[in-house]
Amino acid sequence: MQDLGIRVLFMGNNFIRLLGGLWITLKISLLAVALSVVLGTLLGVVMTIKHPVIKAITKFYLEFIRIMPQLVLLFLVYFGLTKSFGINLSGQVSAVIVFTLWGTAEMGDLVRGALISIPAHQYESGAALGLTKGQIFLYIVIPQTLRRLIPLAINLTTRMIKTTSLIVMIGVVEVLKVAQQIIEANRYTVPDAALWIYGTIFFLYFLACWPISLLASWLEKRWKN
Amino acid sequence: MKKTIAWLLTVTLLAASLAGCGAKEKGGTETQAEGGDGAGTQAQGDGAIYRTVDEIKESGKIVIGVFSDKNPFGYVDENGKYQGYDIYFAERIAKDMGVEVEYVSTEAASRVEYLKTGKVDVILANFTVTEERAKEVDFAAPYMKVALGVVSPDSALITSVEELNGKTLIVAKGTTAETYFTENHPEVKLLKFDQYTEAYNALLDGRGDALSTDNTEVLAWALQNDGFSVGIESLGDLDVISPAVSKGNTTLLTWLNDEITALADEQFFHADYKATLEPVYGSEIDIDSLVVEGGKVE
User: Fold this and answer.
1) Residue B17: which of A60, A88, A168 has the nearest Cβ?
2) Using a CB-CB distance cutoff of 8 angstroms, which residues of chain B are in contact with residue A73?
3) CATH number of A5-224
4) Antiparallel, parallel or unpaired: β B61-66 and B100-105
């Protein structure tokens, strides 16, 4: 029994270190998500404006961020800025910037999609009732948009949490890197530690993402009535 | 009002995306110029990206990029402390310079970038010296060397390349072992696998007569598996492993070279081997086939 790989988890501070790594992961991704939701909503509203210049610019921004792999963006911000402008950002700050840029683009497109999916007769009926433009937005459009947005936004959030595993490339030691460190440190003494450590990581990611899913379904239920 | 806000936002976003673009283009041109005089110009201006020895001493801290998941060269133990062959040397560098050491966890693919941006002072991450890398960073004297090794069952131990003639040799795809045997010994039949685990299992099952990869890897494996020994400890092109600094950082480069030369008197790297590598590679192998003292490779 004592030869089971799971004992690696309880050696020294290993478990605490994994939790510390999870904290870094969550800190960076949730900060980026919060910023993305705010900026992305604004961007989404901007994207619905029918003006050729605005359309071109937002489209360019969206496609640029979408096509560029996140890893390239991370290298651009972390190493590129230092090389070209002498701006020396820490790995964590670079990560938050990149994930916010990415999240804003994706969130913006989601908000735009949700906004234009509201049929024109909703606006027209509101106007026919004598509501002002602001009232139409507040009482008719926004509640319906939010309901459509929730599942999509949650999906984006969990995707962002999982993509943070890339930030090891710019020297930020997050949960997955800690796991690899633990596995490698014991590769000669406990070769089957990998399964156990990755299993633990699975649970940690699950614990991080599950409450978000719960929150989403709670919100969906609440807003149904 | 709404329109104004929308416009403001648009302008901000435009600025942000342009800044992103600019960085990319600049980064691109610089990479191209690296082979030429790109690094040279950086060194001449005041805005040198690296820190000299004096600057490091003044700050009281040297930043060293190491591996955090390459046991036994650079890894983190269960108490969160960095350990390994590279770390043992890094600790000594810091001690002799009279400064604290700060470790940065690097990945194989980003080691060169860390030096090019001056985000670390030294890279001590099992960094093999190659011509391409030498164009972008400055290597100090070597402190270790690696070659290929061949492991085979004790019952039919293979001790020279000639004995492999007509036999089946197991290699992992994309390794130096594959290239070396394909180019230099086409008479040896190769059995190739994608992953190391599969390759080692094939040897255990007797699907091949021997297996070849980096000598450090086979030595460690043979020690874990009874009935197998490394018959050929050093074969093929000898690669050396050196500390690296930013291109043009001559003061630090000289300091490191002097340090490595001075450490030869006390056989420092033999002690390093005993402390960090021996538990993994065993004591029966010839230490001098791995360790380099004073930067001198025979």
Assistant:
1) A60
2) 20
3) 1.10.3720.10
4) parallel
- Per the listing, tokens 């496609």 go with A63
Instruction: Say how many CB pairs under 8 Å bridge A and B.
Output: 122
Give just the sign of the alpha carbon dihedral A102, A105, A111, A113. negative
Residue B83, min C-alpha distance to chain A (Å):
9
Distance of CA B175 to the CA centre of its chain: 15
Q: Which amino acid is at B265?
A: D
Tokens of B103: 């470790």
Q: What Rg, from alpha-carbon coordinates, does chain A have?
A: 22
CB contact under 8 A, B105 and A168: yes
**CATH code, domain with B188:** 3.40.190.10
User: Which of B13, B27, B75 faces A43 most closely, judged by CB atoms?
Assistant: B13
The verdict on residue B10 lying in a domain is no
Output the six-digit token pair for B66: 């190491």
Number of domains composing chain B: 2
Structure confidence by residue, pLDDT tens digits, A16-51: 898 999 999 999 999 999 999 999 999 998 998 888
Residue closest to B146 by CA, chosen among B174, B183, B172, B176: B176
b/e map of A103-121 (b: 16 or more CB within 10 Å)? bbbbbbbbbbbbbeebeee
Q: Which domain holds residue B79?
A: 48-143+242-289
Question: Whole-model pTM above 0.80?
Answer: no
Residue A179 has pLDDT above 70, yes or no: yes
**B105: pLDDT strictly greater than 80:** yes
| Interface mutation target, options B29, B50, B66, B76, chain A, most CBs of A under 10 Å | B76
User: In terms of domains, do B164 and B182 share one?
Assistant: yes
Q: Which residues pair with B169 in a beta bridge?
A: B190, B210
pLDDT tens string B170-219: 998 877 888 889 989 988 999 998 877 788 889 988 899 999 988 888 88
| Tens digits of residue pLDDT in A101-136 | 999 999 999 999 998 888 889 889 999 999 988 898
- Spans of all domains in chain A: 5-224
ipTM over 0.90: no
Same domain (yes/no): B178, B65: no
pLDDT at A150: 86
Q: What residues of B are in the A interface, CB distance below 8 Å?
A: 6, 9-10, 13-14, 16-17, 20-24, 26-27, 30, 47, 49, 68-72, 75-80, 83, 104-107, 109-110, 113-114, 116-119, 220, 224, 279-280
Q: Which residue has the higher pLDDT, B189 or B2?
A: B189
